[in-house]
Amino acid sequence: MYKIGIIGDRATVAGFIALGYTVYEADDAASAGEILETIADKDADNGDGFAIIFIVDKYARELEEKMRKYSSRMMPAVTVLPDAASEGGSLSYGMEQIKRHVEKAVGADILFRD
Amino acid sequence: MPQINVNPTRMELKKLKGRLQTARRGHKLLKDKRDELMKQFLEVVREEKELRAELETRFAGVRGSFEVAAATMSRPVLTEALLLPKAEGTLTVTEQNVMSVIVPRFSYEEASRTDGCGYGFLFTSGELDHAVAELSTMTADLIRLAELEKSAQLMADEIEKTRRRVNALENIMIPQFEETIKAISMKLDENERGNTTRLMKVKDMMLEERLAADRARATV
């Protein structure tokens, strides 16, 4: 059975324990990165690994390089948790990622331009 | 566009014509693939953007409730309350092939539990119930979001790759083939003309010799 992991600060991720997610608390981005690297390939071969790993927005922002390693693989899907709001001009990191994908594929940002 | 360095022979010409045809066919196919991928990618990305925006607002609400709960309850009680999972669902992963890009499809089945949460109501605040209930309704959407994001990521890579290939065929390989084919046929035509001229020249020389011989015979 595949698992859903979530990495983040205590305040954000604590609620997910109750939902049966595998929760990892991290105090800063560096330790979150270490956790990501240890769990990403864990038990991946016997179909018991993590299919989805959520990372809180503020850590994901600093873990770009580590997350990129998993971007071309089908699993785990390392996803930014939508826990930061995009207001006005400043986008949350998750939204920035969408923007970047569009720019990569289309060559220009056609979703966020107003 | 510089031509390819080959011998100007009929053999090479035939080979090149074949390659040009293949390149044209490949170019058309790849272009179609790129267009279709792009169409599907835009659908995925639009849905992802909407879903993320919606989840971001909902998450803000959960965070608020959770903070209130954390403020009104002592930390050990809160930790204990959240210790037991309310429901452990099963996540299954299937693969889907979108224009030769393999994307994951996650499906989450929540194990049904009759009681609302995994903790007693006595020592916990109502805000916590709110937060957990809201979070659990978000689970399906969160999983969908992960699926969409992964698909967008993989498709963006593939589109970029396909676009490079299309461009390489369109702007480099096809013009190169055309140029080389043109050069070879011009060279062959030139040879042909040279040959004809030589033959005409030989004929003239032979005629002249014949005339000279005739003339010599006449004077005798």
Protein architecture, described:
The complex is a heterodimer of chains A (114) and B (220). Chain A has five helices and four strands; from the N terminus they run βαβαβααβα. Chain A is of the alpha/beta class and 114 residues long. Chain A folds into two domains: 3-83, 3-Layer(aba) Sandwich (Rossmann fold), CATH 3.40.50; 85-114, no CATH class. A four-stranded parallel beta sheet of chain A has the order 2-1-3-4, with helices on both faces. The model of chain A has no long low-confidence stretch (mean pLDDT 81). Chain B is mainly α. Chain B has a single domain (16-175), classed as Orthogonal Bundle (Helix Hairpins). A two-stranded antiparallel ribbon of chain B has the order 1-2. In chain B, strand 1 and strand 2 (101-109) form a beta hairpin. In chain B, helix 1 (10-72) runs antiparallel to helix 3 (126-219). The longest helix of chain B is centred in the last third of the chain and has 94 residues, at 126-219. Chain B starts with 9 loop residues before the first helix and ends with a helix. Chains A and B meet through helix 1, strand 3, strand 4 and helix 5 of A and helix 1, helix 2, strand 1, strand 2 and helix 3 of B.
The global form of chain B is: rod-shaped
* Physical arrangement of strands within the biggest beta sheet of chain A: 2-1-3-4
Write down how many β-strands of chain A occur, each being a DSSP E stretch of 2 or more residues: 4
Query: Unreliable segments of chain B (pLDDT under 50, ≥5 consecutive)?
Result: none
- CATH level-4 homologous superfamily of the largest domain in chain A: ATPase, V1 complex, subunit F
**In CATH terms, what is the architecture of chain B?**
Orthogonal Bundle
Q: What gyration radius of chain A follows from the Cα positions, in whole Å?
A: 15 Å
Count of domains of chain A: 2
What number is the mean pLDDT of chain A? Answer: 81
* Level-1 CATH class name of the largest domain in chain A: Alpha Beta
- Structurally, the number of domains of chain B stands at 1
The largest β sheet of chain A comes out as: 4 strands, parallel
Q: How many strand elements of chain B?
A: 2
Percentage of residues in strands of chain B: 5-15%
Global structural class of chain A: alpha/beta
Order of helices and strands of chain A: EHEHEHHEH
Mean pLDDT level of chain B: 85
Largest interface: A-B, 40 and 62 residues
Q: Which CATH class of chain B is shown?
A: Mainly Alpha
